[in-house]
Design brief:
alpha/beta; 10-stranded mixed beta sheet; 9-stranded mixed beta sheet; 19 strands; globular
C-alpha cells in the first residue's frame, strides 16, 4: 500500500497511533484494512456471530438486539487455552463514509491471559452502534481498554458485555473522550466463584454534549468481587450522567461490591449527575457506594496561583491530577500525546 492509499484509509489524527503500535487490527467501514497480529496463541476470524457465545448473554436491550440483527461486520478473537499474550492487541474501529453496525467477540479460554486496546473513531457525522462481548473461561484474565473519540455530530451507542467465570479476572478501563452524543453501557456478570470484575470509566463532556455512562456489575456466584469507579469532567453547557449498579443475588455469600463516583464541573451551565445504586439480596456480603461531585476547590486554586501559576495553568494542573487514572492508558509516547491533546481540547485548557 503506497502513502496515498494509507492516507485515504487511515484518518490523519490517528494515523500516528496506527503506525507506531504493534499487533494492530484496523477495521474501517466494515472491512479489515490492516492486520499485523501474528501470534500462534491467537485466533482472529471475521465471521458471523458465534451462536454458542451469543446464547451466553442476555439480549433484552433493544439497541443490542438491533446490533445482533443487522451487524454489517463481526470479529471473533480467541486466546487459546493456557496461553499468555504479552503484547497488547490494538483494535481500531473506524467509520468514515458509511454507517456500520459492528460487533466484536473476545474469548479467553481457560488459564489464558490477554490485553486488548480498542479505539473507536470517526471524524465525520455518523450513527454508531457498537457491541463488544467478552467471555472469560475459568482462571483466565482480560485487561481491556476502550477509548471512544467520535465527531461532534455523531450519535453513538457503545455496549460492552463481559461474562467472568470461576477464578477469572476482568479489568476494564474505558475513556469517553469524543464530542458526539453518547450512551455507553458496560455489563459485567460474575458467574463463577471467586470471579473478579473491575470497571474504571473516565468521561469528559464539553460544549452542549450529552453523555450517559451506565455500569452494571452483577454477582451471580459466591465469593465474587466487583469494583466500579467513575471519573468525569463536565465543561461549558454539557450534561454528563453516571449510573452505576452493583447487584448481589440472594445466596451469593462473601461477595464484595464497591462503587465510587467522582466529578468536576467546569462552567456555570454544565451539569454532572451521579446515580449510584446497590441491589443487595444477601446479608453476608460487603457493599458500599459514594459520590463526590463539585467544582474545582477554590483553596487549591488559590494556593497554586499564589505559587506563580496562572488561573488556567492551575486549573489544568488540578484537572490532570483528578484524571490520574488516564495514566493507565498511556503505554507509549504517541498514545500519551494523543490523549493529552484530547484532554486539553475537551476541557478548554
Amino acid at each position: 500500500m503506497n502513502l496515498q492509499e494509507k492516507q485515504r484509509v487511515f484518518p490523519e489524527k490517528i494515523r500516528p497511533l496506527i503506525s507506531e503500535l504493534t499487533n494492530v487490527i484496523v477495521v474501517k467501514d466494515g472491512v479489515i484494512e490492516k492486520n499485523t497480529v501474528s501470534d500462534a496463541a491467537l485466533s482472529i476470524e471475521a465471521q458471523p456471530l458465534d451462536e454458542q457465545l451469543t446464547k451466553a448473554f442476555d439480549d433484552h436491550d433493544p439497541v443490542i438486539k438491533e446490533n445482533l440483527k443487522s451487524a454489517s461486520f463481526s470479529l471473533l478473537i480467541t486466546v487459546k487455552k493456557d496461553c499468555t499474550i504479552k503484547e497488547p492487541i490494538n483494535l481500531f474501529i473506524i467509520q468514515d463514509k458509511t454507517t456500520n453496525v459492528v460487533n466484536v467477540s473476545m474469548v479467553a479460554e481457560a488459564g489464558s491471559s490477554a490485553q486488548i486496546r480498542e479505539y473507536i473513531y470517526t471524524d465525520t457525522s455518523q450513527t454508531v452502534n457498537y457491541l463488544s462481548r467478552s467471555y472469560l473461561h475459568p482462571s483466565s484474565q482480560l485487561d481491556y481498554i476502550g477509548i471512544v473519540n467520535l465527531d461532534k455530530d455523531s450519535l453513538s451507542a457503545i455496549n460492552r458485555q463481559v461474562i467472568v467465570m470461576d477464578n477469572a479476572k476482568a479489568l476494564l478501563k474505558t475513556a469517553q473522550l469524543g464530542d458526539g452524543k453518547t450512551s455507553q453501557k458496560v455489563d459485567v456478570d460474575l458467574n463463577g466463584p471467586f470471579a473478579y470484575g473491575e470497571v474504571k470509566t473516565i468521561a469528559i463532556a464539553s460544549e452542549e454534549q450529552e453523555v450517559i455512562i451506565h455500569t452494571h456489575v452483577e454477582h451471580k456466584a459466591k465469593n465474587t468481587q466487583g469494583e466500579i469507579e467513575h471519573y468525569g469532567v463536565a465543561a461549558n453547557e454539557s450534561f454528563l450522567v453516571f449510573e452505576g449498579t452493583g447487584k448481589i443475588h440472594k445466596g451469593m455469600k462473601q461477595s464484595i461490591a464497591h462503587q465510587s463516583n467522582n466529578g468536576v464541573v467546569l462552567g456555570r451551565y454544565a451539569r454532572l449527575d451521579a446515580n449510584p445504586l446497590l441491589l443487595i439480596d444477601e446479608y453476608d456480603v460487603e457493599a458500599s457506594h459514594g459520590a463526590a461531585i463539585g467544582r474545582i476547590d477554590e483553596e487549591q486554586l488559590y494556593y497554586l496561583m499564589s505559587r506563580g501559576l496562572s488561573e488556567k495553568d492551575a486549573q489544568r494542573l488540578i484537572i490532570n491530577g483528578f484524571l490520574a487514572p488516564l495514566k493507565d492508558l498511556m503505554e507509549n509516547e504517541n498514545l500519551k500525546d494523543y490523549i493529552q491533546g484530547l484532554l486539553e481540547t475537551k476541557t478548554g485548557r
